């Protein structure tokens, strides 16, 4: 099956949105605390889904799904984005994006235990290589500190998120699940409310604009373009575009923030991406690769 131009364009737009989120967080942190940044971002994202309710006829999920929705929202949004935003106070966007790119590896380990997905020896070799890459990024480079470890925590959180959310996506419409998970993940963020308006009143227009942008596009609408790509091409054709995310994040970081990752980030990032590719190409004994989905959930 040849990949259509529409699918290619949709995939590229998606990856650009997700890559830009890492830079947008760093710019937003110039005026906001990580907590208020996350709150503003997901107030915007939740508002987008409220607007989309009549457009896509978003429906309530059954009570049997509520527990998974709440867990997905708390782990995949509240915990993931809070940890990532705190981490990016000192960790540059490219480094953060390379670490997050290792999420499919953690998901593969979790899936082998909880979803009974079986991996070949090449899959486990790929998992080891990616894990080594994360160690190189966080343990050798200048970014080794508490914040780098928080980004690693965010990577683990988004991996757990995929395992918890996957059964919902198999039973219900993607837009219904995404909307309710977004709302469920936004509610705990109201714990960050004290001082929000004071900080908002002193924030720069540039910072506010970027946070609104990452709330509307990477946090709310990018999955729509991702679904367009999946609707017009096979998942195996679309997934490789996600490998571009750390590279694009590094480029945007260099252009907009004049930050260039050190050699350890590129070396470790290379290990991470190579390991992910190995797992996705030769890792599973049968069926779709878990990493294809989780990367779409856990980027930016």
Question: Key terms for this structure?
Answer:
single chain; 300 residues; 0% strand; globular; disordered C terminus
Proportion in β-strands: under 5%
Q: Quick check: average pLDDT?
A: 84
Q: Give the CA-based shape.
A: globular
Question: How many domains is the backbone divided into?
Answer: 1
User: Biggest sheet: strands, sense, closure?
Assistant: none
Radius of gyration: 18 Å
Spans of at least 5 consecutive residues whose pLDDT stays below 50 are 288-298
**Strand element count:** 0
Count of individual helical segments: 14
Description of the structure:
The structure is a single chain. With 300 residues, the protein is an all-alpha fold. It has one domain. The protein has helices at residues 5-28, 34-56, 66-87, 93-100, 103-114, 121-139, 146-171, 174-186, 196-202, 205-231, 235-238, 244-257, 263-282, 290-297. Helix 2 packs antiparallel against helix 8 (174-186), helix 3 packs antiparallel against helix 7 (146-171) and helix 4 packs antiparallel against helix 12. The longest helix is centred in the last third of the chain and has 27 residues, at 205-231. The model is unreliable at 288-298 (pLDDT under 50).
């Amino acid at each position: 099956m040849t990949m259509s131009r529409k699918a290619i364009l949709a995939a590229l737009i998606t990856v650009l949105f997700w890559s830009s989120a890492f830079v947008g967080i760093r710019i937003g942190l110039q005026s906001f605390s990580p907590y208020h940044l996350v709150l503003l971002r997901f107030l915007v994202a939740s508002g987008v889904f409220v607007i989309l309710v009549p457009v896509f006829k978003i429906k309530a999920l059954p009570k049997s799904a509520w527990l998974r929705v709440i867990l997905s929202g708390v782990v995949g949004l509240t915990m993931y984005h809070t940890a990532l935003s705190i981490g990016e106070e000192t960790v540059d966007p490219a480094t953060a994006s390379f670490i997050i790119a290792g999420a499919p590896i953690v998901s593969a380990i979790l899936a082998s235990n909880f979803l009974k997905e079986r991996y070949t020896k090449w899959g486990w070799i790929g998992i080891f290589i990616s894990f080594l890459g994360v160690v190189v990024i966080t343990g050798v480079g200048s970014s080794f500190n508490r914040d780098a470890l928080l980004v690693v925590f965010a990577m683990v959180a988004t991996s757990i998120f995929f395992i918890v959310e996957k059964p919902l996506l198999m039973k219900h419409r993607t837009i219904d699940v995404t909307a309710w998970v977004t709302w469920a993940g936004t509610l705990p963020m109201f714990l960050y409310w004290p001082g929000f308006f004071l900080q908002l009143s002193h924030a720069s227009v540039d910072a506010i604009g970027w946070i609104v942008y990452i709330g509307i596009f990477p946090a709310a609408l990018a999955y729509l373009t991702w679904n367009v790509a999946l609707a017009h091409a096979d998942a195996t054709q679309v997934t490789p575009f996600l490998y571009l995310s750390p590279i694009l994040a590094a480029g945007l970081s260099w252009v907009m923030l004049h930050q260039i990752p050190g050699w350890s980030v590129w070396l470790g990032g290379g290990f991470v991406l190579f390991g992910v590719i190995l797992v996705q190409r030769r890792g599973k004994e049968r069926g779709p690769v878990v990493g294809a989905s989780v990367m779409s959930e856990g980027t930016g």
